[in-house]
Amino acid sequence: MDHSVLDLPRSVVLALWLQEAGAGAVPVRRLLDAVQGDDEPHAVRSEDGEAPGTSLAELVAAWASGPRSVAAVLPAPGDPTGVPSAVSGAATEAGECVLVHTDDGAWAAVPEVEQFGSVFEPGHLVTWDVRRVADWRTLLVGQVGTLAQSERELRTALIQATEALASLDVARWRPDAADAIAALRHPADPGWALPETVDARRIQVLASAARLRAIVALATADDGGAVNLWQADQRSAALREVDRAARRAMSAAAQQPPVRD
Prior knowledge:
With 261 residues, the chain is of the alpha+beta class. The protein is 47% helix and 17% strand. The chain is globular, with a radius of gyration of 19 Å.
């Protein structure tokens, strides 16, 4: 996986591929290549010892062996939307979580990522913490919303982000960020390794949401550019809802009805 500025969270990538794995068109090997990318092979940990596997390969093979529902949620401090309470703390710290429902029950998997190496040759050790949770499906749909709702919210969020950045005069105190933000506003193929069955509409929503999240990250990376704490707080408040809309949109695009083999 190319950890670029428009990278998708690992949980979103895993959810999209897991929806297709075992259905005949997508073997587990292709899923692993797409999700792990340049990472070291992903491990699996389960406090209760009930996870169906100790590696991502074993876990995916078990989950893909029958009918399933899969989703990804992207919580943030103060906004645990869609996350089961049993993994709320870990998922919020990680900023992401995969939810799976099979005939064997409901599960949540939270990636714990450890970076090693240098900024020039970074590496990542990823361990998925897997736990049994209550059935999340009905609650998630009500909290995350539909793909159509996400499209509308993203259009509004883009306007909000543009107005907020203009009023805060990002170009004056962060010219490097301003240039990068300007480039991110223009649609481009992110080059993600996703299943061919993911339709263009979902990819467009994911790309728009990823661009908005990248803009927010660049604009809020350095509070030192603000004249005072009030300006820093105003910037954060103006962009917090933008990031929330983008996270919800990614979750909506990553949802899918149960798969029947």
